[in-house]
Amino acid sequence: MLRTLYRILPPAAAGQLAALTAWLAAAAVLHGIALGLVGIVVTASLDSGSSATPWLVALGTVALGFVIVQWVAQMTAFRVGSGTARALHLRLGDHLAQLPLSWFNPTRQAGIIDTATTGVPQLMSFPAILLRPALTALVTPAAAALTLALLDWRFTLAVLAATALAWYVSRYASRLAGVIDARRHRTSGEATNRVLEYASRQPLIRTDQRPDDASALHSALEGVRRASLRSAGTVIPGLLLFGLTLNILFAGLIAFGIARVTGESLTVPGFVGVIVVVARLTAIAAAGAELAAGLRLQHGILTRLAGILDTPPLPRISEVPAGPSVESPGGGAVLVHADRVSFGYDHTPVLAEVSFTLPRRGLTALVGPSGSGKTTLVRLLARFWDPTSGRILLDGVDLRTLDPDQLAGGIATVLQDDYLLDSTIGENIRLGRPEASEAELAAAAGAAGLDTTIAGLPDGLDSPTGPGGAQLSGGQRQRVCIARALLKAAPLTLLDEATSALDPENTRLISAAARRLATTGSVLVIAHNLDTITHADQILVLDQGRIVQRGTHAALTAQPGRYQDLVRDHAGSSP
Ligand SMILES: Nc1ncnc2c1ncn2[C@@H]1O[C@H](COP(=O)(O)OP(=O)(O)OP(=O)(O)O)[C@@H](O)[C@H]1O
């Protein structure tokens, strides 16, 4: 478990944990030596032929050292515990930000919630509380046994063998329970999934009530109940097995001592001294066993966390061969070059050999029938995924070579599933450019059509958005995202008119934002309303994952083709 923790911790936190482990191990060694010396002092006191005084002095010195080292270790433990949890949270956050979005299926999302909110905070108690008794149970008997060699080396070997056997039995019991615990965790992940689904399906359930709607949830929760019972049940045989083993080992060591006393190879005072130590070690091992359940739980959490952290992130390649230089259709400088890009979800092809350029300044519209791959293409430009073949260059640099901050700095998005932080309207807009002044922030909010909303709220820009923006309407959420993009004024802005939040006013605002941003940067807008893109510098027509036409509105309407069909369909559906 320590090994896994060291592997996944960032170097600074791993260094602190190593220092704590060293302090705790030193304390456990001193504890063991002190115990061994107690046995020797008892022997010397009972044995008329030897003096206990030098041993008492040694015992006092070691005990003092133990108290000091233990004190330092204990003071460090809580600091390292909270530092470990914090480092793991940050590591988890950084890693999640680099995973391809295809990884985030509902089961894994439920696993992340569980790991981040419950698992990682619980891991804090490993360095803070559990590591000390775990090391004591292992290291102290060994150190005590070695100290006993001053009295009787055969007992040293016997105690070392007994410790190894007890350790093996405890591991066996905990491995058995670990398998059941992993099963319980899977069942509970499934239940979390069902609870989330049940909550998010409430609108559907209330308008289309069917009695069996909650049956998947019920059976998942029943599965958790059964798995938890099984899991609790496995702790008891493990504890009984370990307790029995300890008693047998203790009895075996007493029998060994009696045999040695009978054979006159050990004195009675020596036997008493050894048994005093062994009795104390048995108590320490029994206390360690009571922690087994806690350690097993932590081991399960750590294994799941390591599983997430071991998932390969979107690769960053260091070098790509320079491609031929390209010019935008207007002859100006190119900001984006999509070069024979193909992509599919789970091997189902969605985009095939798509090539186009976006100028450094100007408005490009992406149009096409539903399912033609428009959103997918925009997601590839924001590097939510990587193309299966081909490449996308931003300012001449392959997206796969950019570090995430560079990429995030170069792109702003207003997409269908944009998320608002559980903060205020102002803070969500400010994410676009944290250093923006209050006046710039207010101007962006105004340009995104938020002034009426803000004026109607008692706290104005400081009004809360709720988790994911739940306290705002769909249209208001979209306006906050538009304001964020306006404030950012990134070199490349990706806009999706978002059919779900579409209303004439929002369409007008998106269109105005696109026009405005296109004067300073490049804008790609997925357009559902063709009236808003008649002025676009370039229109790309996507059909079944291929670009079938490109050009201006005037040029495309003048020639037969997919665009003419789209315009005709749109005119037919417009009021
Ligand atoms: N996450 C996903 N996993 C699997 N398939 C997906 C995923 N997202 C989209 N698809 C599929 O990819 C294809 C293209 O979808 P995409 O959303 O890119 O089209 P679109 O042109 O944006 O459609 P619309 O105009 O309806 O939003 C569709 O067949 C869709 O079912």
TrEMBL record:
Domain ABC transmembrane type-1 spans what residues? Answer: 18-283
Q: Where does the record say this protein resides?
A: Cell inner membrane
Q: Which domain of life is it from?
A: Bacteria
Q: Which residues form a coiled coil?
A: none
Pfam families (alphabetical): ABC_membrane, ABC_tran
| Entry keywords, A to Z | ATP-binding, Cell inner membrane, Cell membrane, Membrane, Nucleotide-binding, Transmembrane, Transmembrane helix, Transport
Naming one, the record's GO cellular component terms include:
plasma membrane
Family matches, as Gene3D superfamilies:
ABC transporter type 1, transmembrane domain, P-loop containing nucleotide triphosphate hydrolases
Membrane-topology annotation of the record: Multi-pass membrane protein
Q: What are the residue boundaries of the ABC transporter domain, all occurrences included? A: 336-569
**Listed transmembrane segments:** 20-46, 52-73, 129-149, 155-174, 235-259, 271-295
- What GO MF annotations does this protein's record show? ABC-type transporter activity; ATP binding; ATP hydrolysis activity; ATPase-coupled lipid transmembrane transporter activity
Entry similarity comment: Belongs to the ABC transporter superfamily. Siderophore-Fe(3+) uptake transporter (SIUT) (TC 3.A.1.21) family.
Q: What is this protein called?
A: ABC transporter ATP-binding protein
Which organism is the protein's source?
Natronosporangium hydrolyticum
